[in-house]
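Step 1: inspect the first sequence and its tokens.
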Amino acid sequence: MPLPLNALLVCGGKYHDMDYARLQLLEHLERDDRIRTRVREDYEDAAVLEDTDLLVTYTCDVRPSEPAQRALRDWVEAGGRWLALHGTNALLEPSPGKPFHCPEEYPLFMETLGSRFLAHPPITPYTVTVSNPDHPLMKGIEAFETEDELYLCEMIEGEGGIEPLLETRYTGKALGFEYDDWPDDDPRLVMYLHPVAAGCVLYLTLGHCRGKWDMRPLMDEYPIIERGAWELPVYHELLERGIRWAAEPKAEG
């Protein structure tokens, strides 16, 4: 009899509606009857990670300790598959009257993810195109428009390199962030694979969501409800494919 797959969902942090994201992701994970999911708000439970077959994360400004960074790295290097979503690579330090600063003190975490968030322009519709239509994760996916945070990142290829899957283009300003000027018309990766030794990270930057309480203490009440790409069927299809991809090693072994 096949054993269940142990999933770890890490969902927590700032400036996003974590309740909404957590519920949505748990519903996706529940659809695969092989998967049993445990939930944490940070990366510090190394004992649970050791018994994890697939890792899914939706965080913002959740900073792993050095032991937690090493545990994550070791887990991926040993063959783990990590589906990282939206703000997982975003560490933010607001200061009154100053732009958001993105600290560089977590290099092993960012090297494992393959990128570091630096900024995003104001939320407005943009087009996402397929970088590699022949990849199995992209079969049948066509270009689509979304109204989400457009992540502008420093890519960290490492020895395994970066395999682009989805991308967009942006030149202009990202007001409110320390890195506010983006003049080069380079592809801005929206989804990519980052192999790390025997394992791999699949990163999807889409998935912004925010409710009225989620910008505290910067403001008492946020004036609108934002759901970003969560409102698109194609986003949920990408999540389904990402979860199936993350479950493959144990499912095939």
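Step 2: inspect the second sequence and its tokens, then contrast the two.
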Amino acid sequence: MQPISTKKAPAAIGPYSQAVRAGTFVFLSGQIPLDPGTGQMIEGGIEAQAERVLSNLGAVLQAAGLTFDHVVRTTIYLTDLGDFQKVNELYAKHFSHAPEPARSTVQVAALPRGAMVEIDAIAVMPQLP
């Protein structure tokens, strides 16, 4: 296994890696809406939080040499499923390739640091010819 990290995404707030490559798979840890520069929760509602989470995921993908096009599976964790449509609209802008990744969305009682949304992902390295 090979850990992947970048300063363009928040540092891990526990004993885990931002992502780990295992064979051709890259497993991205869940991202919450922390500012990578300050490590603090960003201001704003669900749209601002979801956009920050997606930016953080994009930075980790980039550190692995990948893009959102390489993602095959995601899980979205929301503290309020009433926010589903707003998050889904932002998500669709980042995952516009066909086929879209498989996905689950679940409501949870709470997320770290009071976040409203967290997203994790699994990506696959491109196959060389």
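Step 3: confirm your contrast with the notes below.
The helical segments are 46-63, 84-94. The mean pLDDT is 96.
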